Amino acid sequence: MNTLTQELVELLSLEKIEENLYRGISRNLVGKRVFGGQVLGQALRAASYTTDRPAHSLHAYFLYGGDVNAPILYEVDRLRDGKSFVSRQVRAIQHGRTIFTAMISFTHPEEGLNYQINEPEYPAPEQVKSEAELKKMLVEFVPENVRASFMRDRHIEIRPIDPSNPFQPQPEAPSYAHYLKTHDKITAEVDEISLHQAIAAFYSDFTLMTTALRPHGLSYLSPSLQCASIDHAMYFHKPFRADEWMLYDMDTTVSASSRGLNFGRMWQNGELVCSTSQEGLIRIREIETQ
User: Fold this and answer.
1) Which key words tag this protein in UniProt (predicted)?
2) pLDDT tens, 64-88?
3) Which residues are known catalytic residues?
4) Taking the complete model, does pTM exceed 0.90, yes or no?
5) What is the residue-averaged pLDDT of the chain?
6) Domains and CATH numbers, the chain
């Protein structure tokens, strides 16, 4: 695996401290606070260590911003081990307080009724530019003080369908889509369903919340904007691989009371494999003048 993929696998592989208690490392991925997708992926992985079944749903709340300079402890509460479903509660603890909590349910796959909506029609991933290529085209718009962080490669490869300039946002339709996958294949020694699900949880948090900004002509870089994830839900419908192209199609239904509600669907090989929803804080602040 290349360096970025290896780093992602390490980020989502936790150290067992004692029974039901795990420790995850933190990385500076988006700024001073821990990236929400990191906590989602690590919490899901912690819970998965306590069962042999794949997850089918996750419901989480972000309570406090995480410190990128400190590890995070994940405490797993084994609520139920039933014949059909296994239920876990996870608390992410940092500096002595709970910064995140999640309920996660696991079950074995079984045969049953099958139906899905139609996959949206978009150009194939090979027909659209990568995020790295698009960033190079925007370099003249990037302020010097944020250029290094903006141009830095992500731990996943992203190919936006209909990209826009975040430094000059314009009102757009309340929808967005891109392709995602790891930069390299997951090696056999770590190739587990729980890792693929954790990687999907990790990158499900990229851009989902900001979909609600598009009809307002704002982006995550708008200086008057305060953004933060409030909650996050994820449903795993069918098996998938995080190291193969997945289409992430997103839309928002409402922004009100300084919050936006967003929904996402992940598709792979024509199958709807995951669904997400998230409410985020999108507060307009007054800009201080000198």
Assistant:
1) Hydrolase
2) 999 999 999 999 999 999 999 999 9
3) 205, 229, 278
4) yes
5) 93
6) 3-109+128-284 (2.40.160.210)
